[in-house]
Amino acid sequence: MKTIELASINKYVNDWFIEYYQSRTELFRTLNFDQLFDNNPYLLVVKNNTNAGELVSGLLEAFLSSSEEKLFGDFLEGLALYIAGITCNGHKSTAPGVDLEFSNKDVYYIVSVKSGPSWGNSSQQKKLEQDLKTAVARVKQSNRGTNIQPVVGICYGKAKTSYLRGYLKVVGQNFWYLISENKQLYTDIIEPLGYRAREHNQDFHLEKDNLINRFTLLFMKRFCEDNGAINWIKLVEFNSGNFDLDQFLA
């Protein structure tokens, strides 16, 4: 395998971070107040957070966390494909359920890349198993005699390497080694990630704080009494009030 320079990873990370923060900033500018309260209103009542600013901030953090998990998962999967492209001429697969294909030491690897260990339910895992079998059969048709290894590569986690449902499950440090033959790569990528995060965080947090302030003001106008207390009934009515069943039961 070819060696990948840290400078190459730096460039990939920097380009991604620019897009990432642009998308985050754009979200702050376009997020609708009503979207933020599309949550379980009864859970909000049970938590009994009577501070409007903290309530809005908590809901925004939860909203961002769910969307960022997907974005960052896509980043890790994309980084893995980028690295494999340099180290072993890996290429993006066109097969359903498969992300990466590459050869190394007379083995042809068919890889489905997952960002983390909790990547799917049982039906999704069965579907992936079938997708990998189909991809292996396709490669065998055109490359008879080739040693083919289907892999589920998981970008982080400590699970040991194992055979599972007909494929090799490779996790964390082992996965990054599989595509680079560099035992330290899984920690090497931390440096550019941390540097770029610090570089962009100031603007990011300023935009987020501005949004929290705007939404807190709206929340107090719509759901707080004159004395500042939250009117939970108004909040539940806003979230779930939609009575029209009488039209269907007449």
List keywords for this structure.
6-stranded mixed sheet, 10 helices
Structure write-up:
With 250 residues, the protein is α/β, with parallel strands linked by helices. Strands 1-2-3-4-6-5 form a 6-stranded mixed sheet, sandwiched between helices. The relative contact order is 0.14. It has one domain (6-241). It is built from 10 helices and 6 strands. The protein has helices at residues 6-30, 33-36, 41-47, 52-88, 122-142, 173-178, 185-188, 190-223, 232-240, 246-249, and strands at residues 91-92, 100-104, 107-114, 147-154, 162-164, 167-171. It starts with 5 loop residues before the first helix and ends with a helix. α4 packs antiparallel against α8. The protein is elongated, with a radius of gyration of 24 Å.
